[in-house]
């Protein structure tokens, strides 16, 4: 508890309007359409935007405690333009404010909003992950903040979501500028720059490397053109216990499902060998009937290349120095991993040499399961707006039949076609495991089926290893398909189910002495 003198001082400052907690985005730009789909507009009973927020589960939104008002009634998700009626508007069921919150500027400025019903996750609405352990942001690290508030001093709120880059400020420097800085906060933007937040949208997230690490809390005065003190955010990692206990009993479980490798019978192995020899199992896979991936999307995608710089497989980044791909990609002698650009002909990317590869010990060949490989990079990637990490489930997942997910790659777009330079992405629907088993009698364990069956959308020659992404999680990756007919695939596409290999992945990371950081991840339903 702060001293009475400090509390009184903060009260006086607030009355003088030197602490500003109705905040917005200054010197930013319109957020790209397919980005930041976790952003929420918290609105009153008249449908007016009051505060920002962000979705952390299907029924919980995080915002700032200062936003609490008896008039708060709805949360709107699914559209960056608040005037566009194509969104989900859900009634607020309950609000939980931190028990030690008093007023803006004194800390503990965090509120959890319980929705009256689960949101429909899809193209316009996604969950953002929050750190499960305390985070150490580097000074000058570039993050993002977004909101619908004013874009200049004494201006009016905007209808379209705006976003701006802000740099993290050293805590000691922030403390010097804010002598009464509360505990458990992060400072970024506003100080010695004209970029940051101002009147219009508190409650919005500070996003660093794809994680919501802070909640917009307060600023200094109402001068948005030349802010002279750091912008202050609630450090969400310091409130993990509150969020995990309240939002869902599954949020912070770390009970991993132990993988038990089961060898196929000799008959099945022989049969699979025959099928492979006949070319009926295809494991060089690409995207059929898709479209170019939006520039600011899927920034975890990796091109695994040989020593000639030729693309041989897809992959995806799960830590700063580890990429996941398929075990059968090792046949192509991969040497480099390229990240940071959807166009492989564009030299503006990070090309990193592969240090070593770890293939699952029970892998034999494509079609027999355990088709997973971890690629250790020779150096850590530079995380930025073009390179991000994608999260993988920490517990087993239950994907619903017909659930729409995405798969991406650089391979051919038609039968016997040539690989493409620009990343392609396509929606695929999850197939019931029983139906998949009927079509693949010798289907290996620990796989997921999606696309290809009864549809002309899926993968084909060119890019195995690419992730199957559902609600922002990499839940699987392309393993094998049937024949080389990409126009009318007649069997389900098969992916390795990554959640079944979570323990194996953690063991590999541990052996490579990678410092694990656990995140608050729930079951996908």
Structure description:
The protein is mainly beta and 525 residues long. The chain has two domains: 4-247, Trypsin-like serine proteases (Thrombin, subunit H, Beta Barrel); 266-511, Beta Barrel (Thrombin, subunit H). Helix content is 11%, strand content 31%. It has six helices and 32 strands. It has helices at residues 4-15, 171-177, 240-247, 266-277, 433-439, 502-511, and strands at residues 19-20, 24-26, 29-30, 39-44, 49-57, 60-63, 72-77, 88-97, 111-115, 142-147, 162-167, 185-187, 196-198, 205-208, 211-220, 232-235, 281-282, 287-288, 291-292, 301-305, 311-319, 322-325, 336-339, 350-359, 373-377, 404-409, 424-429, 447-449, 458-459, 467-470, 473-482, 494-497. The strands form six sheets. Strands 1, 3, 10, 11, 12, 14, 15 and 16 form an eight-stranded antiparallel beta sheet that branches. Strands 17, 19, 26, 27, 28, 30, 31 and 32 form an eight-stranded antiparallel beta sheet that branches. β20 (301-305) and β21 (311-319) form a beta hairpin. The longest helix is centred in the first third of the chain and has 12 residues, at 4-15. The radius of gyration is 24 Å and the shape is globular. The model is unreliable at 1-24, 248-289 and 514-525 (pLDDT under 50).
Q: Residue share in helices?
A: 10-25%
Largest sheet: 8 strands, antiparallel
Could you name the CATH homologous superfamily of the largest domain? Trypsin-like serine proteases
Please tell me the overall pLDDT: 78
What is the total number of structural domains? 2
Roughly how many Å apart are the termini?
A: 41 Å
What is the CATH T-level topology of the largest domain? Thrombin, subunit H
Q: Architecture of the largest domain in CATH? A: Beta Barrel
């Amino acid at each position: 508890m702060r001293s009475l003198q400090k509390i009184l001082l903060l009260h006086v400052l607030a009355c003088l309007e030197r602490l500003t907690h109705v905040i917005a985005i200054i010197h930013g730009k319109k957020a790209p359409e397919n980005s930041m789909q976790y952003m929420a507009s918290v609105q009153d009973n008249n449908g007016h935007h009051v505060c920002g927020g962000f979705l952390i589960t299907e029924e919980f939104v995080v915002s700032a405690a200062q936003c609490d008002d008896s008039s708060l009634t709805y949360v709107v998700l699914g559209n960056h333009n608040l005037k566009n009626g194509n969104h989900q508007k859900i009634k607020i069921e309950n609000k939980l404010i931190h028990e030690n919150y008093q007023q803006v500027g004194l800390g503990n400025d965090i509120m959890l909003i319980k929705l009256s019903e689960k949101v429909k996750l899809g193209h316009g609405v996604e969950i953002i992950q929050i750190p499960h352990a305390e985070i150490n942001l580097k000074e000058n690290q570039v993050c993002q903040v977004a909101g619908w508030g004013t874009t200049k001093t004494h201006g009016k709120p905007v209808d379209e979501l705006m976003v701006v880059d802000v740099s993290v400020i050293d805590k000691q420097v922030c403390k010097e500028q804010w002598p009464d800085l509360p505990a458990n906060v992060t400072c970024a933007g506003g100080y010695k720059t004209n970029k940051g937040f101002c009147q219009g949208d508190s409650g919005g997230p500070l996003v660093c490397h794809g994680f919501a690490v802070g909640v917009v809390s307060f600023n200094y005065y109402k001068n948005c053109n030349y802010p002279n003190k750091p912008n202050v955010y609630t450090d969400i990692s310091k409130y993990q216990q509150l969020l995990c206990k309240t939002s869902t009993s599954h949020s912070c479980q770390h009970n991993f499902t132990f993988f038990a490798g089961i060898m196929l019978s000799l008959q099945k192995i022989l049969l699979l060998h025959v099928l492979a020899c006949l070319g009926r199992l295809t494991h060089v896979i690409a995207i059929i009937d898709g479209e170019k991936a939006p520039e600011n999307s899927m920034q975890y995608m990796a091109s695994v290349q040989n020593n000639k710089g030729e693309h041989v497989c897809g992959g995806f980044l799960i830590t700063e120095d580890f990429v996941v791909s398929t075990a059968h990609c090792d046949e192509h002698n991969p040497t480099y991993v390229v990240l940071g650009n959807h166009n492989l002909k564009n030299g503006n990317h990070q090309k990193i040499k592969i240090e070593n590869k770890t293939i699952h010990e029970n892998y034999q060949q494509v079609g027999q399961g355990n088709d997973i490989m971890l690629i250790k990079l020779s150096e850590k990637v530079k995380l930025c707006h073009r390179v991000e990490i994608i999260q993988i489930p920490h517990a087993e997942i239950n994907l619903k039949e017909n659930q729409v997910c995405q798969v991406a790659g650089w391979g051919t777009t038609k039968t016997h076609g040539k690989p493409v330079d620009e990343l392609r992405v396509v929606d695929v629907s999850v197939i019931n495991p029983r139906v998949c088993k009927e079509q693949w009698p010798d289907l290996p364990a620990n796989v997921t089926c999606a696309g290809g069956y009864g549809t002309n959308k899926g993968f084909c020659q060119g890019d195995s290893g690419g992730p199957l992404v559902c609600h922002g999680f990499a839940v699987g990756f392309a393993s094998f398909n049937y024949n080389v007919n990409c126009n009318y695939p007649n069997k389900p596409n098969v992916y390795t189910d990554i959640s079944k290999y979570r323990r194996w992945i953690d063991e590999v990371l541990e052996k490579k002495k990678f410092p694990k950081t656990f995140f608050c991840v729930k079951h996908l339903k």
